[in-house]
User: What shape does this take?
Amino acid sequence: MATKPAPNGPMLTEMQDLEELAAKLLETARKLPPGSERHGILKEIGKFRVRITALNAKGKRRPPDLLI
Assistant: This one.
């Protein structure tokens, strides 16, 4: 019988760390002067946040045989 991961397990902490990092990057990037470089950086940060969300969703899905 499989057990559920702890609510504050290492995976959750790592995901929270990534989300905080993305927020800090976004805050810093917004301070850059307007232009194509800033736009490109904001776009990359957006992609990073999408990947974090996908990883987070993937981590929440569990195979049916492991559900309790």
Summary: The CA atoms of residues 22 and 48 lie 7 Å apart.
